Amino acid sequence: MNPIENFTVRFAHLNSLEQPDIQLTSQIISEKVKSIGNPDTLNDLPPISKKSDVNERYLAVNQDDITPWYTEYRRLFFTFIGVSEHDTFDHPVACIIAISSSNPDLDNTLQQLYNTSSPAPIFEKGFMDPNILKYYVLLHDNHKVTLEHSEAVFENMKRTYGLNCHLLKLNSIPLTTPSENNDPFSAPTSPVKSSNSITDIWTSYINENNILQNLFTTSPSTQSTSFENHSRQNSLTSLSGYSLPLSPTMSTLSSPTSSFNEEMIFSKENIGVDSQNTIGFNLVGNIAPPPVIYGQYLSEGDIVGVHTFIGELVRQSLVPYMERNIRQWNEQVASSRRGITGRLFSAGRRYFSTGPKSTTMNPQLAQSPYVFNTQNNNLASPTYAHHTPEAQMRKLADYAFMLRDYKFAHSVYDTVKKDFSADKAWKYYAGAQEMIGICLLMVSTNIGNRTDIDHYFEQSVNTYLNRVKAPFYATKTTLLYYEMLKFRNLYKDAPAALVRMTGDDFDLRSALFLEQAALAFLRCPRPMIRKYAFHMIMAGHRYGKCNQREHAYRCYLAASKIFENHSWSLVDDHIHFALGRQSFYLGDLDTALKFFLKLLRASRQPETQQSAYLKEFLYIYKQYSSKKDKDLNFEPQELPIPIIDSDSVRVVLSNFQSNEYDEIWDIMEKEFLEEGFTGLDICGKPRKKPSLLGSDLHRTVCAVGEPFFVQFNVHNPMNIQININDLILECEYITFEASKENSSNSCEETNNEELPQKNDNTDSADIKLIKFEAFDLEILPEVCLQGLEKKTISLRVLPKKQGTLKVLGLQYTLNSLVHGIKKFLRHGKRLNDTKEQRMSVIYATDRSLDLMVTSPMPLLEVAFHSFPELLFSGEVTKVVLEINNKGQKGLTDLRVKMSHPSFFCIGNAEMLEQKIYDNGSLTTEKLKIKNSIFNSNIKNIPLPQKECINSNSTSFSLSPGNTTLIPIWIRGDRIGKHTFRFLFTYESEDNNMAMKYRSLRYFKTTQVLPSLKINAFTRPSTRGLNEFILGIEIENLQIDEKFQLVQLSSISPSWIMSPINNESSGNADSKSSITPRQTIFIYYRINRIEKHFTNDNVVETNSESNDITPEIFTSNALERLLTGEKNLQSEPSPVNLTITNVPFQDHTISNSANPLEGFSMNSRVQWRSNTLISQFPFIPSNKYQNIFTLYNTNDVDLALYWSIPSSQRQGHHYIVGINLGVQQNPFQGLSISSAPNRALFEQTIRERALLLNSLTKNKNFKDDSPLKLVIQCVDIYEHNFELQSFCIIPITISIKNCSWNKKVGFTLEMISPDQNETNRSNAFHKAITPMIFHWMGSTFKYATLSASEEQTFMIKACFIRSGVYDINRWRLTVKYDQNASGGGRNESGVGMKGYVQMPNTPHLLTIINAKDSWERDQK
Amino acid sequence: MSFYFAIVGTKDNPIYEVEFGSSGTKSIGLDPNVKVIRFKDEHRHLNQFIIHSALDLVEELQWNTNAMYLKSVDKFNEWHISAFISAGNIKFMLLHESKNEDSIRNFFNECYELYIKILMNPFYEVNSPITSIGFDTKVRFAAKRYL
């Protein structure tokens, strides 16, 4: 026989052997579990958030230490396990009967103590065998009797009861207070002891006994006698092989072999006075007086005596008794069962037995209340009496198991299992299955077939649960299985086993098991942390259900570590909600709010869920705030809703205008900066160019007293409606001095947010403003955001002091309850300068919310009155511009840059009543203007003169609060839909350092419809050299409007216009009105102004003689540009314009009055710059002013005035840029040789070459022949050929050099028609050329003409017949006079030589034979 | 028949989730042994829990086979979890009731192709949520066809 180590015995009072009260025990257990908090060991370990957290350090910690509540649960569970009929582990094996040697009537008392006729109540149920080993102990109390007496009695006993007797000596320490003999529970009088430690070994257990006992007594269903023996739990722990601290009795066992599972029963009645001295457990009273100390008088020798007593008991009596029984039952029952006969017997008995199975039961059972399932379940499960073979078999197996013959036990269990199954004794069956599994786990060294074992346990659990409805035992099985698995390190199988027992019935057990399962996942060979997390969540959920809040919180918290940052949104919501709720129940409102805040976000939760979250959050917050109000440290929190888009936060100044077309505005501002600060301002001081329109400091600048708005987008991420109340900005004011020395820790910060003086002053509007020292803030009472709604909110700020104002954030109240704050976090643009910055994402600090408050400034507000939405092309209407200064200072130097300058003409305030088309009387007007291309984009707006105190500085300004009206005429210059942009700039009267200029953007849209389509064409007149025929084609594009032409005007420096025929009246109306879709032609004659026209003019021309013509100016300027001279600053000389008005009707419109003059100049400038841009793309546009002139000498502009009588509209069209001169390159290349070929940079050389090339070989300028030739003679000549056969007619030929600078040589050859007939391709000529005439005299003529020189020849032609002749027959070969052109370069010469001019129109001369006519007359 | 399909990135983060099938018939409760199974609104988080916890088993299984389709990897009450793992360690997880391996395999393959197309988008970053509506409709269509 192999030695059995660590054999353990359990002792229990016989009367305490009860079947368990499951409801009560579970109550006790849950109380106990609740009381156990987090162990210290857990705090040392880092929380598990990823797989690597499950490290060796974690695994080194015993799992029982991680979850002490589970350990406690397990301990209590086995404490309360009680007895059951289906296994015999809790049945007594032996009985100890103890008696004091002082007892006078020893024999009788012993008889009474164990009276077989009246056994303990537990035996009445029949499943327990009352026939057990009895062991008699004689207690010798030193205080009572002498040793001799006791030994005598013991000898006597031995004789009566045989070997199973023992004499136990106690209380060897002498009694110090003999007076208290009779009261063992009175306060001990601290006896003199050698070893205090020995006496203490019971206290802890007895204390616990007391606690348990109290629990039972306090609970209503208590049965007062059922208190438990403390040492019972050890049977389990030793079973699972753990060396838990043993109860004192065990630890004192020194024997190598001690009984494994044994019940020692003390009969209660007997103990009487000495009870505390026996072993000290059987307390009589329910109320245990606390100060009792047991075993005070036990000496060390006594303890050793107890040890030897137990050892002797086990060695000499108990184990042999058990072995004997095993042998006996094996022979009597088991072997026969194993044989064929046994099987037949059992089968036969099964099939042929008449009665139900209950016949084998003890007849008492039928009425016993302890039979399971009889009362509440119709399906009576049989109970075997202790003498039935099945019960004996089970007992046999249990004994074998106790004595650790697992293989044998397994075989017996296996055999008896079948019987149980056949009898439908499911409880027994389940128990057997369980034990088979345990046996297998105990016996096998390497467990290969784990699924098999698992199967046994699964069956057992399922049978317990489903057939027997005894979850208590299923729990026991699972616990045992789990502990076994833990012991064998088979954590992988544990979760499945544990989860099997997580039904709905016991939340606490399920929670504990789920938690254990979760932990088991971590101890798998490969830790499964996600499974761990999931099971922790489930455990937490179950803990929450059974009110174990702290445990629930802990589980959820542990799991949340794993789900963190993984964006499983629903999971996160669930965890946060659970954590919030549990921490709320636990009274931790801070934490609860923290978790609920995480729930307020965009999520996939349905609306109802979100509103539930919100509701709960608000409820908790209410409690929180009521609590915190007393503490007085109530800080507003950052709330997750609503979302404020920090990027959208911007400051909108009060002078801010539309932001829609930002880029275009930016371009306009930039252009303004370039163009607008070159000249002098109104007072004659040069303008200083600021780096930015608005402010110089790269900061937002606003003025004192001018409100600005902070605009931001608010977004509600949730599906439900939320309200935000009392929105107010949080601002910080830093005084000017502090902000100047900005490095000095921003010394004078005054965060005015906390100012108590919240006197709500309602502004004139509905805006509520809260006044602070340095600024006023608008408070917005309520904003309601629907689910997922986005809103833009702007809040007004009114700065009141100079300095720096920082907008920090927003304060608001959510749903009128939660005080929240949002900081505006903005960053500037991303930095990209250094490598470091490029590698990472670094942003510049943002200063857009950091405003500078300066001294008061003017603030412009403009409005256009009666601005037309629809215009006909060319139509002119008057618009009134209202200018209002809303600022605190005078406004001056108001200018405007327009995107469409040709549309507008700005008048003076005095011209408000002026008509557009003023009646004039003059048909010719003279005007002297500056002949330079001015910038038409930027216009001054005249302001009323200010009545200054000191008269020497006259200034035009608009004082604060004043309004002025300015007329502006608008003309539909181009067809289409236009957006007119006006960029107003102005200055303060005071010189403000921070902000010199302010600007205002304004825009208007108008659609311009087509009205008239006008084409003009010119043709040289045959009447003279300086005469042209002007034809104008006018088409009415309108469908239903009738146009009335009013007047045609020409504007030109050197040409005037006259009607071709002077009959002005007559059918004037039919000529001047155009019905819809009609086209008319009108013709005019254009003549050159003769210099000697009047005397005045002569004087004028003389006085202008030192002026240079525009052509010379341009040529010189280009030359200078080429040579790279810097000073291009000269200005062209003024030009005299002559305006001729040809009215269609009676009244004349004066063209020189302002709106019209302005429009004509605007149009001219516009046209001129546009053509220049296309002609000279290489000359930068800002140099035009210094190179080109507005009018060239031969330019003619036409203006056609019309009106629509039906709709009172009137307007005019311009035809700009008719050049009646000879086309000539403005660059004459006179001194091109002087252009230096060397330059400092190659770049400049290349640019210059490009420029030169563009000038000399400009495709836009094909030089024409500068010469003009006209033939003049009478049209009809009568000649009597009979009188004289030759008709000789003198013909005048005028040749003019139209070039303004070139001397030209020419050869004129008169050609007779017969000579070069072949050259004539003109069909017209072919038809009539047979008429031959001859030139007389020299037909060749050579001459040179200097610039603008005109020469006239007389030449004669000879006709021999009457007829119609084309006398325009000549050839003109033009050559520049090399000498005269001053040694020009060859290139230019080559380019200009060899003009051959031929007539292109016939000049017809009709010669009538006079005789014929005479004859006709005769007839 | 309800299904819950999720694509899980390499950092255990869901990059795409969809539920389809006749909803409202069965629900899963947090109590593992409650037998009534339904995708109810209040229990939708459980789908995520189950899928997430099944990832452990996917990680265990993925080294044992060359196939991308791992078949049913886990079980939660009556629910099966089938998994498919892409070459880039992106996990396709399907929570379903009935075992029909072929149709699920087809469904996974289809989804994998769709996912590859998403991956080819130069503006898509690996492991970031898939927000493409086209992808969503195609996945639903594939589910209708195969499941």
UniProtKB/TrEMBL annotation, chain A:
Residue ranges of the TM segments: none
Q: Name one Pfam family in it.
A: TRAPPC-Trs85
Q: Where is the TPPC8 C-terminal Ig-like domain?
A: 1276-1375
TPPC8 first Ig-like domain: residues covered: 696-870
Question: Where is each TPPC8 second Ig-like domain found?
Answer: 874-1000
Q: Name the GO cellular-component terms.
A: TRAPPIII protein complex
| PANTHER family noted in UniProt | TRAFFICKING PROTEIN PARTICLE COMPLEX SUBUNIT 8, TRANSPORT PROTEIN TRAPP
- According to UniProt, the name of this protein is ER-golgi trafficking TRAPP I complex 85 kDa subunit-domain-containing protein
Q: Which organism is it from?
A: Glomus cerebriforme
UniProtKB/TrEMBL annotation, chain B:
What GO CC annotations are associated with the protein?
cytoplasm
Q: Which domain of life is it from?
A: Eukaryota
GO-annotated biological processes:
endoplasmic reticulum to Golgi vesicle-mediated transport
Q: Matching Gene3D superfamilies, A to Z?
A: 3.30.450.70
Q: What is this protein called?
A: Sedlin
